[in-house]
Amino acid sequence: MKYLPSIKQLQYLTALAQTEHFSRAAQLCNVTQSTLSAGIRELETVFGVKLAERTKRTVIITPIGAQIAERAASLVRDAEDMMALSATSDGPLTGRLHMGAIPTIAPYLLPKLLPNLRAQYPRLDLALRETQTAILVDEVLTGKIDVALLALPASDNKLVEQPLFEDNFVLVMPATHPLTGKKQIDAKALNDENLLLLEEGHCFRDQAIEFCTASGLSKFSTLAATSLATITQIVSADFGLTLLPQMAVEKETAFDDKLTARPFKSPQPSRTIGLIWRKNSPRVADFEALGKVIKAA
Hints:
InterPro entries: LysR_HTH_N, LysR_subst-bd, WH-like_DNA-bd_sf, WH_DNA-bd_sf. One of its GO terms (molecular function) is DNA-binding transcription factor activity. This is Hydrogen peroxide-inducible genes activator => OxyR. It is built from 10 helices and 11 strands. The protein is of the alpha/beta class. Among the domains are: 7-86, Winged helix-like DNA-binding domain superfamily/Winged helix DNA-binding domain (Arc Repressor Mutant, subunit A, Orthogonal Bundle), CATH 1.10.10; 166-271, Periplasmic binding protein-like II (D-Maltodextrin-Binding Protein, domain 2, 3-Layer(aba) Sandwich). The strands form 2 sheets. Strands 3, 4, 5, 6, 7, 8, 9, 10 and 11 form a 9-stranded mixed β-sheet that branches. The N and C termini lie far apart (54 Å).
């Protein structure tokens, strides 16, 4: 019988291919650098090929090493899925669950969601990560996280998408702006306005531009921000108008009397909030239970 590599050794190779750095790879695997280096050498002996070229400052994964690392990552994910599957025998939402959320959802929904999750599923050990959509999609696909909460669609056929609810867009403007006299806003009224958006990379920016373009709007401010909180403060200083998702309006405007929020006329622009996970994940029951708690939050 041939000697086969261990899952731990494959984890070492996956981490090294991801970081191209022995020290950082060791940190990812929670081992010492010498332990990881020894594991890679043992793996090279098992395969009979050079997996990485080492210098004092850099690590270069060899072409065959890259191919093996890609398959190793798949095997490690399968092993992690087996562990997750065994955990589901104790019931839904028990044990460790890695969840990601985008910045235009996390600060507004999670404070309501987390107490409900803790009350209903006290044995859940939830690890949270907040970052942009493209990164979350990649991390779900590679198994770094189990599930992500974001605006759909994620547009990848390797993922399952579960829509949860619609989140309308709202116009936020200085309280002194003439449009505050309107109960509902016609998008065409924004033609000559200075519209502030998030910086590139945020899906809410893309969704806002899609709505504006469909409404015949093309003028956007050269100012861009990394968060909705920053944008609303700029609007409060009378430097333009912006769109906010409905879930963010109370937190971002409630204590600022310099700001006014108004809904758009029907059909109101909105985004679909939902969960994504890998198609072959064994934790579908967990994700469906999570979706129910989110919808009720």
